[in-house]
């Protein structure tokens, strides 16, 4: 590799040296603040918790600091796009076979295939699309979405003349979620490709970036993974707009700081990344987690483990954070974000076992540890909060009784103030650095005033959000520790309407109530500790309005109109994202129409049969069981069947044929009214164009 | 255009003496047939109407021969049979006699825009050579040819904690856990009792 041997040890020494120094200073100040005499179990516990929590704050601060320093220097000389680029001289050589895989499960169909169309066109425009094949790997359980996916795939292939280059596969048995879907792809077709680009259902990559990723892998045979940093885009709700603004402002600094110390041992986030397939197939099949019988679980968050296994096999993982052209979408509101966090929480906690697995690299253990602590720190923070309040109450009580004379300006008070200052500095430093960086490209963020105002509002929002998240994360950790399983459900991406107030009150009402009661209680019983607790209790009180107001697109649209929370992707929209934000509004209705088409349209029916192929043939006994379902579907309408029953029918070629024939041949009087629209002829064709569901 | 059943049209419609009570059913059959043919989106609407009229005439004749079938069922069954037979007879890359042959042929037609360029080929035995050649090319692939790779998870050594946990799971039963809990709770209770009895003052 082109990197001098001493760069990494020097960087790690500097990074972790500063980290340890700051943690040491914080711990020393905490010791002083607690006061040496009467050091009991509670204080010992407080100190231990503080070290854990403060270390996390320091780690974040160090990431931002080193990222900022790298940015101030004009960029990291060892950033992957500088280090790994320029693989093929002239950049015009044919690229090796690369599969772009998009595992999906009940996702908005138009959005998924719209993104693939945009990437296909972007690759074609770059002139480097020859080696790329696309695979849409569906685990969708909804029959309507299944039908819509097939028809959208055929339309796309026809529109782009991409048959044989864009493939669609629906798994019959959806085992092990996304990682199982990718493993299934690897087993079937993995050996035909040298690289695999993994996408999420909302991912978009530019053709230029895709070509660069392959070139970079070609230039560096030891590179096993190159992860890009996706920019959050297409936010309409206030929640999403703030999140994408925050990520746009501070994300690059954290990524640069992260790359500073891990170098070729970077993270893999499971999407918007390229993998070298041969070592991935050979080394990254996920093992089961330890546990007796039923508790022997499959790994939920596969990406961190796959990186660790890839690194263990001797391959590198790079974080290409400076490359433009990688995009994804965030959750539309707090409730959806928490749903995702709950899954991630369980996944990250499962990684505990890998902390002590022999043979893993130091960096892999750090990634596992940081992932673990990102959720585990919440219950620890809650505990710390409780113990601090108890401690303050005791100190004040003894002072009132005259047992302890409190003097303002004492060593403990000074240490407390210094500690508070240091913590706030470390917490706000990333925001400040992000703002400074943003000011250098202020036009892309809407100008000086708007950027500064947006940064201030984002700071307020995150200050209100963090204590609410702390409570939810604590609950998630508790539930995960008790072994409560969480199904890996599809993330909702719709943002047309705000969350209903009743649902928000149900989900967050208890937190607001707790916040209000605690504020009252503290102001009455512990007025001396009111202001230290105020930021947290006030944030709890605001949980309901915070979740509700940020969940709708009305405030988000207003903010955009006012030029707040603007991101570079909004001020100068990339071509790869064109039109994608408009897709998905009529999703549900179009999916129902697709199911109707599958039954009525001879082409859509033929498409479904051809895709089922020979695999779906059933025994006569199964056919007998399916016949009553066919009759019910026709006579009582699609709503009469459960999705599983409908999916069973659609998985059987004989049933699909029979339903198509019977729908057309049965008189109207014997059919459910829902089928009437099937007999309305499709719109007449305009000359030179062909509008078809297929 | 050469439809083998076209000559029936005039004869069948002329000779049909449809009973008044079946007229509504025949109207439904005609409307249903129109809708079915509309899904094929023939580029020539006139030809689509001719095909429709021919198929309807054929159904009326069949009805005279074997009465008792509802007109909708009879007409659409006939239409579907004709379409399936025609699709299965088209040149195709898929195996002769396979169940998917008609489906693959329909998709090949759609992919190649067969009915856009040659609308009058629909249900006709005469296929233009250019279209025949296109239909013979393998056009429908849901995925590349399979080449199976071996990707199986191997057990991994999770280190001392996992070993301890495994040993606990495998060697300690609920009875032992219960006994240990009872022992420690008893011991703790005894210690508390002793403390409160003798030392608390």
List keywords for this structure.
A: 694 residues; seven-stranded mixed β-sheet; three-stranded mixed β-sheet; globular; disordered C terminus; B: 201 residues; mainly alpha; 2 domains; 9 helices; 0% strand
Describe this protein's structure.
- Chain A is an alpha/beta fold.
- In chain A, 59% of the residues lie in helices and 6% in strands.
- Chain A has a domain at 1-93 and 214-498 and 551-578.
- Chain A has 24 helices and ten strands.
- In chain A, the strands form two sheets. In chain A, strands 3-2-1-4-8-6-9 form a seven-stranded mixed sheet, with helices on both faces.
- In chain A, helix 4 (109-126) links the parallel strand 1 and strand 2 (132-138).
- In chain A, helix 2 runs parallel beside helix 13.
- The longest helix of chain A has 40 residues, at 362-401.
- Chain A is globular.
- Chain B folds into two domains: 8-136, no CATH class; 160-199.
- Helices cover 63% and strands 0% of the residues of chain B.
- Chain B has helices at 8-15, 23-38, 45-65, 71-89, 101-112, 114-117, 129-136, 160-171, 174-199.
- In chain B, helix 1 packs across helix 3 (45-65), helix 2 crosses helix 3 (45-65) and helix 4 crosses helix 5.
- The longest helix of chain B has 26 residues, at 174-199.
- The radius of gyration of chain B is 38 Å and the shape is elongated.
- The mean pLDDT of chain B is 82.
- At the A-B interface, helix 5, strand 3, helix 6, helix 21 and helix 24 of A face helix 2, helix 4, helix 5 and helix 8 of B.
